[in-house]
C-alpha cells in the first residue's frame, strides 16, 4: 500500500497528494531494517551478502530487458 502510494505520487499527481506514502514507506522500511539488523546472527557481511543476492539478479534482469527493448524496438523508448 505504501509503495503503491509512492508510485502514484511520483507518476499521476501533483506533489501535494500522495506524499504521505513516502513517509509511510520510510517508516515501514526503517522498521524492517531494524528487525533484520537486531538479530544476533546478523553480521555486516551476512547482511550485505543477503541484500546483494536479493537485489542484483532482479536489477540485472530488468536492465537486460530494457537494453533489449532499446536495441530491438527503440521506438518504444522515450529516448535511447
Provide a short characterization of the protein structure.
The protein is mainly alpha-helical. Helix content is 71%, strand content 0%.
What can you see in these coordinates?
The chain has 80 residues and is mostly helical. 71% of the residues lie in helices and 0% in strands. The chain contains 3 helices and no strands. The protein has helices at 2-11, 20-37, 44-72. α1 (2-11) packs across α2. The model has no long low-confidence stretch (mean pLDDT 82).
Feature tags:
flat, 3 helices, 80 residues, 71% helix, single chain, mainly alpha
**How much strand content do the residues show?**
under 5%
Helix percent band: over 70%
* Mean of residue pLDDT values: 82
Shape: flat
How would you name the oligomeric state of the polypeptide chains in this document? single chain
Instruction: Figure out the total of helices.
Output: 3
Report the radius of gyration as a whole number of Å. 18 Å
What structural category arises from helix and sheet content? Answer: mainly alpha
* Largest beta-sheet details: none
Q: List unreliable stretches of 5+ residues.
A: none
Order of helices and strands: HHH
Number of strands: 0
N- to C-terminal separation? Answer: 32 Å
List the topology elements.
Blueprint: H1 2-11, H2 20-37, H3 44-72
Amino acid at each position: 500500500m505504501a509503495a503503491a502510494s509512492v508510485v502514484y505520487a511520483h507518476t499521476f499527481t501533483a506533489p501535494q497528494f500522495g506524499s504521505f506514502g513516502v513517509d509511510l514507506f520510510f517508516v515501514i522500511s526503517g522498521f524492517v531494517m531494524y528487525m533484520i539488523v537486531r538479530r544476533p546472527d546478523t553480521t555486516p557481511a551476512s547482511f550485505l551478502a543477503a541484500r546483494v543476492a536479493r537485489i542484483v539478479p532482479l536489477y540485472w534482469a530488468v536492465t537486460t530487458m530494457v537494453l533489449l527493448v532499446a536495441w530491438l524496438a527503440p521506438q518504444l523508448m522515450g529516448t535511447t
